Amino acid sequence: MIKPKSNKVIYAFFSWYIERIIKKDFSGFEYNKIAVDPHKAILLLSNHFSWWDGFLVFHLNKIYFKKKFHVMVLEETAKKVSFLKYLGAFGIQKNAKSLVESLTYAGELLDNPDNLLLIFPQGKLHSLHSKSIDFEKGVSRIIDASKKNFNYVFAAIITDYFDQRKPNLKIALQNWEAPEFVGLQLLKSAYNKHYEATLTQQSEITV
After folding, report:
1. Closest Cα to residue 205, out of 139, 174, 159, 155?
2. How far apart are CA 186 and CA 49, in angstroms?
3. Neighbours of 118 (CB within 10 A)
4. Which of 57, 102, 142, 202 is such that its CA lies 20 to 30 A from the CA of 118?
5. Cut 0.85: pTM above it
6. How far is residue 106's CA from residue 119's CA, in Å, rounded to a whole number?
7. 20 with 93: CB under 8 angstroms?
8. Rounded to whole angstroms, what are the CA distances from 170 to 39, 89, 173?
9. What's the rounded Cα separation, in Å, for the pair 155 and 59?
10. What is the side-by-side order of every strand in the sheet holding 28-31?
11. What is the chain's Cα-based Rg?
12. How far is CA 59 from the centre of its chain?
């Protein structure tokens, strides 16, 4: 398992660089503000349709949530893009003995109120035009490995061009008040209600 490493110089450079390329490649970066308990960690669940997604949430966390950022990625990605571990990425290997270790590590991150953990429940890239988001079983294993005392935040990332040369980016956020017992299907259903509502609202915009 590849765990995050600390290097203030590398972190500062890529934090600056990510902000720079977002401003360069998008006509806007929008998000809505939500109420979260600042004394609890954040589990942020998001759709995953592009190379940008992890960097977009990294930047969102930097300017809004201001937590210590963590994101789960495939170990082959962590090895290929070596600087990711300095931005809070940790690698997992599916169908490997180390998978349990990785999921347990992720769950323990949620016990520290300073942390934000980004998970893409689909496990791989899917089209932005997907009508619903699938959830892999690993999500519930992460939750079970924690003390279950954290904020659930749903993020639906969407883009549109309209009359602009560059796309506008929108991250629709929702703080989900979870019941005492959270099953995978309940979590999936709650997330997809937010995702579908975001797509419907976006489709009604005219310029």
Report:
1. 159
2. 23
3. 26
4. 202
5. yes
6. 9
7. no
8. 26, 23, 10
9. 13
10. 28-31, 168-176, 150-160, 41-46, 115-119, 68-74, 89-92
11. 17
12. 11
Q: Which residues pair with 150 in a beta bridge?
A: 41
Tokens 């999500």: give the residue. 139
Of residues 117, 106, 207, 114, the one with CA closest to residue 164: 207
By the 8 A CB rule, do 125 and 49 touch?
A: yes
- How far, in Å, are 7, 87, 192 from residue 148 at the CA level? 30, 25, 21
Q: How far apart are CA 66 and CA 50, in angstroms?
A: 23
- Structural domains in the chain plus CATH codes: 8-203 (3.40.1130.10)
Measure the CA–CA gap between 126 and 129, rounded to whole angstroms: 8
Per-residue model confidence as pLDDT tens digits over 31-90: 999 999 999 999 999 999 998 999 999 999 999 999 999 999 988 888 888 899 999 999
- Write out pLDDT tens, residues 89-113: 998 887 767 788 899 999 999 999 9
